[in-house]
């Protein structure tokens, strides 16, 4: 039986909402600054095994993005425990971590180091990343000269080509023109078909989720209301949209 690569045990995440930035800053020094609490994730538990492809559904504000941020270590649970095993590549904000003054090639090395790769590993992957992003002519130009689409293509290419053990995709398949979108989908399919690569796919598109995933988790108001086979999860998600 495959081991669990992601485990959430009774995880709750509470955000403190202050009236303005000034009060947020003061709260660092003064403990009694008033705030409201927002429970973004409310006591959830689930496990994802190595090699599984799982879709997470939910309306805006359901807690999906918070779950992703906790898996990638951007934020941490207020209570409960999270265990993640393996190299995580997250297609969330594709251009985060770029330095606009660096060239595209320099940013490949910068992002690679952020993702935990060694110099020789990045060097080996570099030609593949440049080719996939279709930026051969521009790769030695500063990223500030790139269009938003070019930056997104470079970000996508870096993340899908670093040979991740866990791949997290959040609506990132809307990169570039139709031909490049098709190429992105084919690349993710290729990654999913590899042995032991785990996919966590967050989307509003049930048809795209069905293309990649066999299991679906539905979230509502910070809770998991369904964790079943993909068809049953889609049916449950469609009910939440109608409400």
Topology:
Blueprint: E1 4-17, H1 21-26, E2 36-49, E3 53-57, H2 64-72, E4 79-84, E5 88-91, H3 104-114, H4 119-133, H5 148-161, E6 166-170, H6 178-193, E7 198-202, H7 206-212, E8 215-220, E9 223-229, H8 230-242
Parallel strand pairs: 3-7, 3-8, 5-6, 6-7
Antiparallel strand pairs: 1-2, 1-4, 8-9
Helix pairs in contact: 3-4, 4-5
Describe the structure.
The chain is an alpha/beta fold and 243 residues long. The protein has a domain at 98-162. It is built from 8 helices and 9 strands. It has helices spanning 21-26, 64-72, 104-114, 119-133, 148-161, 178-193, 206-212, 230-242; strands at residues 4-17, 36-49, 53-57, 79-84, 88-91, 166-170, 198-202, 215-220, 223-229. The strands form 2 sheets. Strands 5-6-7-3-8-9 form a 6-stranded mixed beta sheet, with helices on both faces. A hairpin with a 2-residue loop joins β8 and β9. α3 (104-114) crosses α4 (119-133) and α4 (119-133) crosses α5 (148-161). It is globular, with a radius of gyration of 19 Å. It starts with a strand and ends with a helix.
